[in-house]
Amino acid sequence: MPPTDLPLTGYDAVEFWVGNAKQAAHYYRSAFGFRPVAYAGPETGVRDRVSYVLEQRAIRFVFTAALGPDHPVADHHRRHGDGVRDVAFRVPDAEEAFALATERGAAVHREPEVLADEHGKLVVAAISVYGDTIHSFVQRDEYSGPYRPGYVALEQEPVTGDAGLELVDHVVANVELGEMDRWSRFYEDILGFSQLRHFDDEAISTDYTALMSKVLWDDEGRIKLPINEPAAGRKRSQIDEYLEAYGGPGVQHLALATDDIVSTVAELRDRGVGFLEVPEQYYAEARERVGQVDERWEDIERLGILVDRDDEGYLLQLFTEPVQDRPTLFFEIIQRHGSRGFGVGNFKALFEAIERAQAERGNL
Questions:
Q1: What percent of the chain has pLDDT over 70?
Q2: What's the Cα-to-Cα distance from 109 to each of 129, 136, 191, 311, rounded to whole Å?
């Protein structure tokens, strides 16, 4: 494996290609507490698309929609529905990161380009990864504008304040059967990641469905990228449902970290965000399995939050329902108390909740 000499300093932005960027921006502003900070479109000289940039603390989302039926964004939306196009990484040198990645075999999506305006310059390049997803390398240490050249600043506060979401904890990909190992090697060989966790179908299964997962990370904890593939089961797994609904591999969910999951989930529920429901009997087992936590168990149970403990500490997590009509992208809200894990003790309860939702859709 190449040495980890391709420095990635964190997530720069996650860009979603959607059918209606204005409505998507309003949803994430009102439901999740994001603040619109920048805009590009016809009013700024961009004639073929519109983009809204929203932020919450260290999280940056970009929502882009086409202004005509023949645009690549429109084609992407026809095939996938609303979905993640770009998981962009911050780098100190975009040209060097791109050169290293492509020398090691990454497919070129966008050659390095210098973008400049009165706020300075920004360098961006991109490689292709699973499905129609890309990774951009963004060098913005010499840029002080609201997002990128071509964007103008917006000053819109969240409808009722932010929801306490701090940063992107991890980004999960779904790929076809037999492709997990291939993409794990890609991140190891191309980006110098290493394997943090491996879950086989014995660990992630119910009586009906199963999947396998490998977690790749940058050895610093700034970027964590789990990769899932379906496994054989008596019925169709959530990964199979996703691959059919999305039309191929893509980002399954984004985990957003908070320092106070009780307050965050309460706020999100009040704003109408739907979450997967776990049975009441989960909590009797969880209290015994996890033991003492800083939060009140009464609050955890009232809000439907899942809890898991490992040798390093514990974590709390909860998963939204899909945030668009297709059963594809959803979000995880997570708070870590030392644990670097992914809630393996909650897998069965979580997957049974997903199966109940699949059954309601007629897709199990």
A1: 93
A2: 9, 9, 16, 41
Average pLDDT over residues 108-118: 98
Closest by CA to 81, choosing from 65, 100, 57, is 65
Nearest CA to 162 out of 254, 55, 60, 53 is that of 55
Contacts of 265 (CB under 8 A, 6+ apart): 275, 303, 304, 305, 318, 333
297-310 pLDDT, tens digit per residue, is 999 999 999 999 99
CB 325 within 8 A of CB 361: no
Of 256, 260, 306, 258, whose CA–CA distance to 283 is shortest?
Answer: 306
Whole-number Å distance between alpha carbons of 307 and 84: 28
- d(Cα 269, Cα 318) in Å, to the nearest integer? 11
Rounded Cα gap, residues 13 and 53, in angstroms: 9
Architecture of the domain made up of 10-153? Roll (3.10)
The two three-digit tokens of residue 17, written as one number: 């290609």
Token pair 């932020």: residue = 55
Distance separating alpha carbons of residues 314 and 261, to the nearest angstrom: 13
Task: Give start-end residues of each CATH 3.10.180.10 domain in the chain.
Answer: 10-153, 165-361
Q: Which CATH superfamily is domain 165-361 in?
A: 2,3-Dihydroxybiphenyl 1,2-Dioxygenase, domain 1 (3.10.180.10)
The secondary structure of 333-364 as a DSSP string is: EEEEEB--S--GGGHHHHHHHHHHHHHHHT--
Extended strands (E) in 145-290: 152-153, 165-174, 194-199, 210-217, 224-231, 250-258
**Among residues 267, 286, 270, 274, which one has the least CA distance to residue 348?**
286
User: Other CB atoms closer than 10 Å to residue 141's CB: what's the count?
Assistant: 14
pLDDT band at 204 (very low <50, low <70, confident <90, very high): low
CA distance linking residue 34 with residue 6, whole number of Å = 31
Distances (CA, A) of 312 to 40, 216, 336: 44, 19, 10
One-letter amino acid for residue 34 of the chain = F
Report how far residue 275's alpha carbon sits from residue 268's, in angstroms, rounded to the nearest whole number: 9
